[in-house]
Amino acid sequence: MFYVKKGVNMLLFRYLAIFWVLASLLFSAPIDEKRVLVSKIGANKYKMRLYFNYENPYNTQATLVGRNAQYDVNIPIPDKFDVLHMSLKMKYIPSLLLQHTRSVIAVHANGHIARQFRLNQSKFKDSGVTTITSDIPTNFLLDYNKIGVKIIQHYASGPSEDTSVPELWTQLDLHHSYVEIVFKLKEFKEKLSSISKFVLDPKEVFKETLNFVFPKYPKDGDFFNYGFFAHFAGRTLKFRDIDFSVSTKIDDRRNNIIIMPRKDLKKVFEKYDIKDLDKKISGNINVIQNPHRPEKGFIVITGKDEKEIKNALFRLNSDLFLLDEQNIKVVSIETPPPAQPYSAPGYILPGSKVYFSELGYKTKTFSGEQPENLFLNFKMYPTVDYNDNDMIQVVIKTINSKILRNDSAINVYINNNFAYQYRISTNEKNDIYNAGSDQQFELENRNSIPSILLNKGRNSLKMDITMFPIGGPALVRFNNKILKLIIRDDSYLVFPEAQTEIEYPNLQYVKDLAFPFSIYPDLQNTGILITDFDSRTIASAMYVAFFLGKLVDYPAYYLTITPDINKMLKKDIISVGKQVERFALLYQNAPLKFTKDGLVKEISLGKKYIEVNGKKVEKSFASAKIVENVNLNHYLIVQMYQSPFDEKRVILEISANNPETLYKGIKNGFTPVHMGTFQGDTWLYNVDTNKSRSFRLQDSYTLHQLIEGDNMYGEDDFIEE
């Protein structure tokens, strides 16, 4: 009896389909992602425009409903900005049924009202798109700002107005509304705190530009040093991006990072007239202003030898950002012992009890009929495999006033799926309560959530709160803030124990969790392979280290980054650069292989099995080769596949036919907008059309053990031919 492995019949279709998509990516219109614009309007005078959807270009509109509503955009102000003027321009369409005299829109910054307008500009004609413009006083501004509009909407007069009617709406045009900032750049200060204020500022929404000054003939130590700094930059900036470049000399257009022995520094600065240079580079970490560009600077990390330089790198942390000294000498720092597996900060392990405070939440008071939602985000390693009947215990501790009616409730959602509801009351069986005073109750609600609602990776918990007063809705109309609920940060989640299982390959795990590289947070089992010495390829490798740092908040003490593949054969490998012949063995399991004319892929058209002594044994193997002449000079290709050197390890290949496409592809394609499509085992990004697409070109395989023990695969499914 013959058997055919399930899924093989679809393989040929998968590979043929990819070439149709290549054509569609080539001729598709580009996405307009220029949601942050900066222009120079004078001597050290700039204008920045941030559209309301700058963080998500696909979010083009928002509809505000109800009597009171608000929409804000987060606008951080970098420390190096001296803000001269700020304004807001908003486009919207109001409902025609709103009362002209009582419906208002107000521009605000951090709760301070800048200006008010009537929602319907005229009561005598139909309202189409309405545009309002308002200056925002700069004394309203903070480091992190909530800037936007508040609206009050009425369709009738008197207390009998129903606040839930559909007539109460206003639609905001986020794509054409913006905040504009006029600023000048402050001079770069020669202080260690300038590392965060001028170089690695999380408040910088426009890409910071960094140049890494490499020696002409870099060694493995140089790759590690700059890779460690790039990883540190990712840990510092988190949600912001950097435009990296690599060169053998200083680039005056950028802030420059210089990591090399002290004896080599004089040559780097030979064209710069820096007063007291010897004194300014006498520390191990030094901050120097660029005399050619006073708003730019040099971060110089140095020492007498490699050991001292590495010692200085390991001193990099947020404590430095508080120091006003120009440099610092680093005492000896012992390299920490290798980290334990599955110990990355911020990841929840099975069997753990996690307080809301550990997830970044602080005790908060919620007011009004429908206050803002409570959001918590947490990560779980994708190896966690819960059974369908496993439950997560949720304990929510609250304090609320006695005026709340019994039908006041909290709806709890996991990953936007409804999980359960409980009433904010004092008479439920699962409530433990104590009268804190005559006016409030302290409650503890216990409930359980099915684990099947969890994702393998990133997860979110949302609480949607609705409160009603005992006195009825008329009471709230006079004082909406009398409805109070406190949710305490000592509320917690208890996760059950779980089995371990992982299905490979899956690019989504890389995008969300840097998995499997995050198994060891110090990256002891990660190797970044640089396939050529072009400066753009090296800069691309630095960006990969930066990307890992954004997802793994732990120093990369044991990262291997080198062009020598022999130093990483037993590691999970990230290959950066063009496929090269000397690494042919590395690519043997790749879904797609490059030729000078296009792509070549050998695919299985059928795996046949026969029964021998009751066991299924492979008998024959048929294969075919697809060759497609596609111009790949404009594509970044990311593939994930099983390592040929160790079946428990994976290869993440980031490649392009030339260094320029590789560099542009990683710089522009590794963004939240495009990495939303990062899944399957293959991802393509066209650097010209700015389009991306993912595929699954291989059958997945299952591992039950990644760290120790035998490599146990899941059973193959077979169907009778």
What features would you describe in this structure?
The chain is mostly beta strands and 721 residues long. It has four domains: 3-28 and 506-708, Chitobiase/beta-hexosaminidase domain 2-like (Chitobiase, domain 2, 2-Layer Sandwich), CATH 3.30.379; 39-185, Galactose-binding domain-like (Jelly Rolls, Sandwich); 206-328, Chitobiase, domain 2 (2-Layer Sandwich), CATH 3.30.379; 351-497, Galactose-binding domain-like (Jelly Rolls). The protein has eleven helices and 44 strands. Strands 19, 20, 23, 26, 27, 29 and 30 form a seven-stranded antiparallel sheet that branches. A seven-stranded mixed sheet has the order 34-33-35-40-39-41-42. Strands 2, 3, 4, 6, 9 and 11 form a six-stranded antiparallel sheet that branches. A hairpin with a 2-residue loop joins β7 and β8 (112-118). α3 (220-237) runs parallel beside α6, α3 (220-237) crosses α9 (535-551) and α9 packs parallel to α10 (659-669).
Blueprint of the fold:
Layout (H helix, E strand, L loop, with lengths): L2 E3 L5 H17 L8 E7 L2 E7 L9 E5 L2 E9 L4 E14 L9 E6 L2 E7 L11 E6 L8 E9 L16 E17 L8 H6 L8 E6 L6 H18 L4 E6 L7 E5 L5 H4 L8 H4 L4 E6 L2 E9 L4 H8 L13 E2 L18 E2 L4 E3 L8 E4 L6 E7 L3 E2 L5 E11 L7 E6 L2 E7 L7 E5 L4 E11 L7 E9 L6 H6 L5 E4 L4 E3 L4 E2 L1 E3 L2 H7 L12 E5 L4 H17 L8 E3 L9 E5 L16 E2 L4 E14 L2 E14 L6 E8 L7 E6 L3 H11 L2 H4 L6 E5 L4 E5 L5 E3 L14 E3 L1
Parallel strand pairs: 12-13, 12-14, 14-16, 18-21, 33-34, 33-35, 35-40
Antiparallel strand pairs: 1-37, 1-44, 2-3, 3-11, 4-11, 5-10, 6-9, 6-11, 7-8, 7-10, 15-16, 15-17, 19-30, 20-29, 21-28, 22-31, 23-27, 23-29, 23-30, 24-25, 24-28, 26-27, 32-43, 36-37, 37-38, 39-40, 39-41, 41-42
